[in-house]
Amino acid sequence: MAAPAATPASPAEKLISGTIQSTGLLWIVGGLYIAGPVLGWGLAMLAFIAIYTAPNQAPAERPPPLHPAIHLWLWGMAAMLIILIVGHLQNELGLPKTIKSSIGWAKGWALMALFPFAGAVLAVRPEVIYRAICRLGLQTLIVIPFFLVAPFIGLPGLLYVSPLKIVGGSGPEYFAVILYTIEPGAGTPRWQFFAPWSPAAGMIAVVHILCAIEEKNLKWKAIGIVAGLMLALLSQSRLALVALAIVWPTAYGVSRLREAWVWFAAAPAVLGLGMLAPQLQALADHAIYKFTSARADSSRVRAALGRIATDRWRNEAPWFGHGIVERGPHLVEYMPIGSHHTWFGLLFVKGLTGAVALIIPMVASFWMAGRLSLRDPVGRVALSMLLLLTLYSFGENLEILAYLYWPALFLVGIAARRASQAYGAPPGASRQANAPSIIRVYGPCLAAKPPWKQDVSIETVPRP
Fold first, then answer.
1. pLDDT winner (highest mean) among 253-257, 295-299, 451-455
2. Which of 140, 217, 228, 361 could form a disulfide with 73 if both were Cys (CB 3.0 to 4.6 A apart)?
3. Distances, alpha carbon 392 to alpha carbons 99, 215, 385, 400, 405, in Å
4. Which residues contact 286 (CB under 8 A, 6 or more apart)?
């Protein structure tokens, strides 16, 4: 008897669901920063095993060919490592810093390829992820009152920093158990929950809302959406509110482009936009002004970091960057140059080649998800996740937070698997030929049977 759609069945599904629902426990022990990379590399290993054993499986159980977008993610993030090494050599940073940065690559950029790769190979149902996130939402709603009263009953904002910090990381905030922070200047509390800082919590909240929207059970759907909204509002992230207003409606509109009513509705809307262009431009300028002035000091520091990063990239290391982030001057409150912005960070640390290594797989994934969204809801989810990542790439360093938003990356991989099944093979084509096409990418040795089986010949006698 088949398992219900939201009940984990395979080892990969149980591992994913269990990790999501253990977010709170991992946060308490300071293990979230460790769990993300371990899960990513573990799922990738399961995917490689699935590829290796594909020739010995029934055709219906074999994974489909890898979508070209997944190939680009693998090659692009592998290029990030090569670019990192070249940048360290050019800037003479030494072997210890190169090793440290390579470990950072394994915990950051590599995950942006490993999770989509695992999602494209392993037969994991998206419903399992949706339900696990909604269950995490129930846990969140239970503990939110405690977080809310903490600053008013005298509890400290920082409870402790986990001893697991010894494994290394970008800073103690990744291993700290923080109940709340105090907004500089305003003096009001702000919550970040299990994220290292509040805007990151807003990003994760939007990921959870986008998943909860797809949950079929109305009770769990309501719980997931309410929990996500609470996280977004209490994090006080401006970008999260913008994402909530833009991401899902945009993805939903793209997924309905094959329906005539969308075009008929869009025609007068486009005409109205053209007629009201000056007023809309003024409204947009006012909205941008209000957005930046909501936290003027933060906006000023981010803008200054961007100017410093691009100026030094252009004049000092245009192709392979500086290799590492550097501490900024007093003007930016000593924030690292290359932080708070994925693209400025890439240009400063890895140069133009690093930016191209990320742009190409993202564009290919947008095409894949947009096309699939016309026929499969998973395509719409993947498209919304890619829109969210793009939006947050202008306010966060995506690679640093991959250990938190990894379900979004995995769903992109699931969408690539569906796209490969839908568009990869012509009608009536045998799936038996699909497995070698995956294996050839990673070496002819994987396509062959194990050596101890190659010389065994079994003649099949047809039945009368």
1. 253-257
2. 361
3. 28, 24, 11, 12, 12
4. none
- Using CA atoms, how far apart are residues 92 and 85, in angstroms rounded to an integer? 10
Q: Which segments of 91-216 does DSSP mark as H helices, in order? A: 95-107, 111-121, 126-149, 198-213
Where do we find the tokens 């191209």? 356
159: phi then psi, degrees, rounded to nearest 5: -80, -50
pLDDT at 231 over 90: yes
The set of residues, in sequence order, having a beta carbon less than 8 Å from that of 172 and lying 6+ positions away, is 161, 165
The more confidently predicted of residues 280 and 441 is: 280
CB 387 within 8 A of CB 435: no
Cα angle 241-246-251, degrees, rounded to a multiple of 5: 135
Yes or no: say if 390 and 350 are a contact pair by the CB < 8 Å rule.
Answer: no
pLDDT at 432: 41
Nearest to 406 by CA among 207, 166, 214: 207
Neighbours of 374 (CB within 10 A): 14
Distance between CA atoms of 415 and 421, rounded to whole angstroms?
A: 10
Q: Report the alpha-carbon distance of residue 130 to residue 5 in Å, rounded.
A: 10
Mean pLDDT, the chain, whole residue set: 86
| pLDDT tens-digit series, residues 1-30 | 445 667 888 899 999 999 999 999 999 999
Question: Cα-flanking dihedrals φ and ψ of residue 319, to 5°?
Answer: -95, -50
Helix (H, G, I), strand (E, B) or coil at 173: helix
Comparing CA positions, the residue from 52, 16, 26 lying closest to residue 413 is 16
Whose tokens are 């360290």? That residue is 88
Based on its alpha-carbon atoms, the radius of gyration of the chain, rounded to whole angstroms, reads 24
Secondary structure (3-state) at 248: helix
Q: Which residues pair with 158 in a beta bridge?
A: 178
Q: Provide CB contacts within 8 A for 378, sequence distance 6+.
A: 126, 372, 411, 414, 415, 418
Give per-residue pLDDT as tens, 179-201.
Answer: 999 887 777 899 999 999 999 99
Distance CA 182, CA 179 (A): 10
Distances (CA, A) of 130 to 16, 213, 360: 11, 8, 28
Could you give the CA distance from residue 153 to residue 111 in angstroms, rounded to a whole number? 40
